[in-house]
């Protein structure tokens, strides 16, 4: 690098598990980063809540500040990395950074899923980049492929395992036969689940990521509140065993589909065939499966969380954003919106797996089949197993609307011959 | 788009299975492409060998030309898509296009693996982009993630299944127990293998891709002739069964590793554990597994060939290159080279699986173990199975240099107590 040439100055907001790894990589990879950016990349400051808090990386004391608002407004800051998380003050800081001419890299899924358009418009107005690869599926490059590599193709469907905690729990249930509570406790002991696991277990985290994936895949605006959401707290060992019986495995999926011009975006547990590429995603790993018209089926797999993996994604964005900043150009932005309707869950087409304990007498199967047929639901397979005085019926339906399917289950629950509907779960993923 | 604004004019060289799909997508996706590029994208011309040849897409007759050299030299061509393949005339046409100020997108793995640096220098000198996502693993976005998403990380290892034909054959052998010849014939019947399957079966195709992957992953220059190469023609049903016995599967792998400052680049069949993400890559699919310091383990999966998938990758590149062309900027180029030594195969550290038919008498195991030890090779596991008058020993070694391992096998072959060394294969991939 020639002396006196341009230097890229980076402010990092937050120095927790991700922020500290970003600061570490900025220091350790300084030479490589300079070569790839085309100019030295310098740390301008690190905003923290308390100067004297313990942290995983050594920051030169002069660079630490508790005045995040002051840091992003500084003239000598070219690039802001936001890894505080949450809605405020992250949103105000990002907006201020853009207004002051900085480009921004963020890992903030909650903010993007709640109020992405406000941020994108601010970036557009400022003529700056706002990149957020780290917000979905940690280190896995998925936003860039969706936005850039598939820019000449038409994505029709995205199926993602985007929450490592729930995948760890479901994988444990599948491999050991354990129940949900026991598996959650193991995840907590191993540090895969938090003491309050609500955000993960109830699907809130996955729903935020689903909103971001749907927005990018279909060039439209989807917020977290548009996403239909069911968590995994009600998944039982019996559900998991039922899935195994039909050669499937239970996963918490984030699903975004294009149906004509509307999108359907949802997060719920579903059975997928073991031969499907997503079925082999074990433990706390994440993966995103993409179907597009020309490319066909693609999958992106990797660690979905953790300080270092997330920091890797932040640095990848940082290199591109820094190059654009130097060149005075912008990357592919979010400008090309075609606002699409979001389909209500009731109108979304899906398939159900239903296990029913019934009286073991003649005509039961016909009666149950009639209930499906009355709601316009076609049955793909039905299996009947005698169990002494009662019997179990396992029905897998063809595609129907979620409203038709749930009405069918409602009717089954009220039928005299039905002792109990023991398992209801959606089925996704053709047997590849 | 405002009338009279800029228009991006694209010349397509070649109209075979990929070229015809590129032309089709340019026409069908015109509106989406214009929105994403920021200007209309128009077909300026399509260079073909014969105007009246049958083709899969309708091209307005005025746009067809047999004068490819004249087409790339035209002033009104902004962007050249090269999908002819092979070394010449592709190289001269790309160089001429760059000299005349066009940016280039190519799917030409053979040319890039043989003479990439010449092309990269020409692009650098012309201040234009040269993108080639489609050259490796078809539709799978792998070059862009390596070059951009992981730009702030340090890649240490790439393991790829980058040839669909050989993966189809090996998968068939694994699932049916059939031999190589029979499986190759089935692949040929189904159109997965060509009448002359040499380029695929002998690993030439995978070696070209390995060279490109290694160059990008380690920011160095590796050509196809630097790549150690073994094909799959000698893989037997017994090898595949031996792999199954140790919970593994045989795959043709393209491997690029960073060892200190040298790189090791090789293509050969290897046993990998069934729990490894690459083991679940079936049929003609491709996948690239990447290990990096911060991100950890990533995998990219999808169709590795075919007209439409390859065209999807070409169009993805085209959108980025077109945006850069309009902005007068360039994407992340190949500028940051650190020329690294390529390690000879003999010095590459690897592991061997060796199956040996031996006389069933006392002391045989000790004698065989001694042969390994004399060459400095440590044994990880050994399994002995009686088979009437003789016995089989199956040895899996710890890591040693390939020279030490092959010398050990050489010595075993000459030993009196050894009837036959029935299977020798490298072992890759930790049990994940």
3D structure, described in words:
- The structure is a homodimer of 432-residue chains.
- Chain A is α/β, with parallel strands linked by helices and 432 residues long.
- Chain A folds into 3 domains: 8-138 and 308-327, NAD(P)-binding Rossmann-like Domain (Rossmann fold), CATH 3.40.50; 143-304, Dihydrodipicolinate Reductase, domain 2 (2-Layer Sandwich), CATH 3.30.360.10; 346-427, Alpha-Beta Plaits, CATH 3.30.70.
- The first copy, chain A, is 36% helix and 26% strand.
- Chain A has 14 helices and 17 strands.
- Chain A has helices spanning 17-28, 30-37, 68-72, 90-99, 109-126, 143-149, 164-176, 180-189, 198-201, 204-218, 237-245, 307-327, 364-374, 402-414; strands at residues 8-13, 41-47, 64-65, 79-82, 103-106, 130-131, 155-161, 228-229, 248-259, 262-273, 285-292, 296-303, 349-359, 379-387, 390-397, 400-401, 418-427.
- In chain A, strands 7, 8, 9, 10, 11, 12, 13, 14, 15, 16 and 17 form an 11-stranded mixed β-sheet that branches.
- In chain A, helix 5 (109-126) packs parallel to helix 10 (204-218).
- The longest helix of chain A is centred in the last third of the chain and has 21 residues, at 307-327.
- The radius of gyration of chain A is 24 Å and the shape is elongated.
- The mean pLDDT of chain A is 92.
- Chains A and B meet through helix 2, helix 6, strand 12 and helix 12 of A and helix 2, helix 6, strand 12 and helix 12 of B.
- Strand 12 (296-303) of chain A pairs antiparallel with strand 12 (296-303) of chain B, so a sheet runs across the interface.
- Chains A, B: This is Homoserine dehydrogenase.
- Chains A, B: It catalyses: L-homoserine + NADP(+) = L-aspartate 4-semialdehyde + NADPH + H(+); L-homoserine + NAD(+) = L-aspartate 4-semialdehyde + NADH + H(+).
- Chains A, B: Keywords: Amino-acid biosynthesis, Methionine biosynthesis, NADP, Oxidoreductase, Sodium, Threonine biosynthesis.
- Chains A, B: Its cofactor is a metal cation.
């Amino acid at each position: 690098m020639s002396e006196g040439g341009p230097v890229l100055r980076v402010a990092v907001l937050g120095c927790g598990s991700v922020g500290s790894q970003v600061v570490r990589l900025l220091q350790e990879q300084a030479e490589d980063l300079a070569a790839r950016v085309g100019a030295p990349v310098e740390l301008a400051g690190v905003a923290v809540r308390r100067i004297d808090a313990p942290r995983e990386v050594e920051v030169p004391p002069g660079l630490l500040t508790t005045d995040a608002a002051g840091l992003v407004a500084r003239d000598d800051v070219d690039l802001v990395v936001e890894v505080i998380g949450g809605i405020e003050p992250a949103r105000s800081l990002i907006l201020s950074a853009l207004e002051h001419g900085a480009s921004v890299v963020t890992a903030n899924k909650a903010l993007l899923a709640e109020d992405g358009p406000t941020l994108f418009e601010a970036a557009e107005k400022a003529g700056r980049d706002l990149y957020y690869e780290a917000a979905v599926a940690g280190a896995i490059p998925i936003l860039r492929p969706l936005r850039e590599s598939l820019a000449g193709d038409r994505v029709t469907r995205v199926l993602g395992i985007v929450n490592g905690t729930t995948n760890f729990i479901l994988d444990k249930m599948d491999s050991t036969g354990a129940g949900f509570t026991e598996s959650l406790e193991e995840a907590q002991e191993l540090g895969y689940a938090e003491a309050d696991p609500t955000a993960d277990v109830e699907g809130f985290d996955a729903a935020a990521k689903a909103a971001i994936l749907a927005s990018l895949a279909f060039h439209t605006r989807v917020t977290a509140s548009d996403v239909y959401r069911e968590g995994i707290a009600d998944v039982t060992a019996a559900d998991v065993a039922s899935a195994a019986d039909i050669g499937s495995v239970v996963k918490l999926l984030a699903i975004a589909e294009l149906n004509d011009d509307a999108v359907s975006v949802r997060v719920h547990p579903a059975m997928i065939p073991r031969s499907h590429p997503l079925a082999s995603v074990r433990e706390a790993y994440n993966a995103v499966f993409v179907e597009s018209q020309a490319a066909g089926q693609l999958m992106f797999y990797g660690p979905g969380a953790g300080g270092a993996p997330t920091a890797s994604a932040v640095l990848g964005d940082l290199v591109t954003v820094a190059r654009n900043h130097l060149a005075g150009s912008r990357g592919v932005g979010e400008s090309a919106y075609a606002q699409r309707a979001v389909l209500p869950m009731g109108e979304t087409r899906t398939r159900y797996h239903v296990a029913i304990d019934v009286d073991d007498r003649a005509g039961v199967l016909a009666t149950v089949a009639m209930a499906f047929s009355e709601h316009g639901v076609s049955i793909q397979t039905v299996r009947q197993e005698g169990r002494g005085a009662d019997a179990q019926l396992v029905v897998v339906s063809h595609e129907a609307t979620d409203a038709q399917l749930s009405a069918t289950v409602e009717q089954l629950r009220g039928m005299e011959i039905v002792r109990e509907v023991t398992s209801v779960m959606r089925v996704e993923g053709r047997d590849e």
